Amino acid sequence: EAQVTQNPRYLITVTGKKLTVTCSQNMNHEYMSWYRQDPGLGLRQIYYSMNVEATDKGDVPEGYKVSRKEKRNFPLILESPSPNQTSLYFCASTPSPSHYEQYFGPGTRLTVT
Amino acid sequence: QKEVEQDPGPLSVPEGAIVSLNCTYSNSAFQYFMWYRQYSRKGPELLMYTYSSGNKEDGRFTAQVDKSSKYISLFIRDSQPSDSATYLCAMINSGGYQKVTFGTGTKLQVIP
């Protein structure tokens, strides 16, 4: 089944404890991105990647890191999480940067205390 | 001012009603318009896609774009309880790079 998977689905952590949220797609898509979704603010792009070893900042990159060493994987790293990073996170992929449809993962609910 | 404005709702309608969901935008460079549907505890899924001004129909769903007014709509006919979800409008500008701007979403509840 063609899909985008994220792990973990739910995570509660404490301020300052490094964490990684994994994202993997099995559709051979070139383009992947991370979003956070907050009430009243909608989906905001954190980082995106146009292909392996090609990443760039989105609208709200502060406090996040990403890497793209393989085409299928695009992990999101929070090196020192803070409470304002409590949010619902989505990974998405699309066949190419010019393709309009994005395929979203199921989301990761992160709480930082 | 946000580039895309969308009423968050919630919108509650009886089963069988016609639902109208709307977004306005300020960036005239937006050329591609989409509606995503997001069920609770799920990621958004593409529902409708339009490029030009006018209407596009798919079953019970009709997407309408009015570029002159910078206004897009999604109509749902004969609404069903299974349509209960959050509906997000999304837009892409005319540049080569696919930068998607989302509305905040409208939560819809269809009452049986």
Short description:
Chain A has no helices and 11 strands. In chain A, the strands form 2 sheets. In chain A, strands 2, 4, 5, 6, 9, 10 and 11 form a 7-stranded mixed β-sheet that branches. Chain A is mainly β and 113 residues long.
Structural commentary:
The complex is a heterodimer of chains A (113) and B (112). In chain A, the strands form 2 sheets. In chain A, strands 2, 4, 5, 6, 9, 10 and 11 form a 7-stranded mixed beta sheet that branches. A 4-stranded antiparallel beta sheet of chain A has the order 1-3-8-7, with no helix packed on it. Chain A is built from no helices and 11 strands. In chain A, β4 (31-38) and β5 (42-51) form a beta hairpin. Chain A is globular. Chain A is mostly beta strands and 113 residues long. Chain A starts with a strand and ends with a strand. Chain A has strands at 4-7, 10-13, 19-25, 31-38, 42-51, 54-57, 65-66, 76-78, 87-94, 103-104, 108-112. The model of chain A has no long low-confidence stretch (mean pLDDT 94). Chain B is mostly beta strands and 112 residues long. Chain B has no helices and 11 strands. In chain B, the strands form 2 sheets. In chain B, strands 2, 4, 5, 9, 10 and 11 form a 6-stranded mixed beta sheet that branches. In chain B, a hairpin with a 2-residue loop joins β6 (54-58) and β7. Chain B is globular, with a radius of gyration of 14 Å. Chain B starts with a strand and ends with a strand. The mean pLDDT of chain B is 92. The A-B interface holds A 4, 31, 40-45, 90, 92, 94, 97-102, 104-107 and B 6, 8, 32, 34, 41-46, 49, 88, 92, 96-100, 102-105.
Structural key phrases:
A: 113 residues; mainly beta; 7-stranded mixed beta sheet; 4-stranded antiparallel beta sheet; 0% helix; B: mainly beta; 6-stranded mixed beta sheet
Q: Give the class of chain B from helix and strand content and strand pairing.
A: mainly beta
**Mean pLDDT of chain A, nearest integer?**
94
Number of strands of chain A: 11
Largest sheet of chain B: 6 strands, mixed
Query: CA-to-CA gap between the ends of chain A?
Result: 36 Å
Number of helices of chain A: 0
Element-by-element helix/strand order of chain A: EEEEEEEEEEE
What proportion of the residues of chain A form beta strands (DSSP E)?
over 45%
Q: Tally of extended strands of chain B?
A: 11
What structural class do helix, strand and pairing data of chain A support? mainly beta
Radius of gyration of chain B, in Å, reads 14 Å
Shape of chain A: globular
